[in-house]
Amino acid sequence: MITCYLRYEVNPGKLAEFETYGRMWLELLPRFGGIHHGYFLPSEGASDVALAMFSFPSFAAYEQYRKDSAGDPDVQKAIAFATQTRCFIRYERSFFRPVFPKELEGGRG
Fold first, then answer.
1. What local confidence, expressed as pLDDT, does residue 100 receive?
2. How many CB atoms lie within 10 A of CB 20?
3. Secondary element (H or E) of residue 91
4. Deepest in the core among 5, 43, 69, 89, taking most CB within 10 A?
5. CB of 54 within 8 A of CB of 8?
6. What CATH number has the domain bearing residue 11?
């Protein structure tokens, strides 16, 4: 399993728009075989940082998602919404291999 960690620099005046954008992806990603772990919006601390995490069975499955989603009209709408609203300034993407307690490892690899 591979987990993608996204760290966004958000526009603090556009958190409602960023939340709308996040909710779009919460519905979109599973269509392409991913598991979304949610968006995490600023609460205490930095007011311009938001996080998101999602997983795919493998890096190859993630790459397939990137190919398959590129032409999807709903994905294009989400990208256009972010561009129009400028709800985030930039993002960083990192990949991790999760380690689970033994009782949760069944079927994960």
1. 77
2. 15
3. strand 88-96
4. 69
5. no
6. 3.30.70.100
Bridge partner residues of 6 (DSSP): 52, 93
Block means of pLDDT (10 residues each) for the chain, length 109 residues? 96 94 96 95 86 96 95 96 97 92 61
Q: Under DSSP, is residue 92 helix (H, G, I), strand (E, B) or coil?
A: strand
Question: Looking at the domain assignment, is residue 26 inside a domain?
Answer: yes
Nearest to 39 by CA among 6, 11, 62: 6
The H or E element that residue 75 is part of is helix 73-85
Query: DSSP character for 58?
Result: S
Residue 1: Cβ-neighbour burial (10 angstroms; 0-12, 13-18, 19+): middle
DSSP state of 41: -
CB 78 within 8 A of CB 28: yes
Tokens read off for 36: 């979304």
* pLDDT score of 44: 80
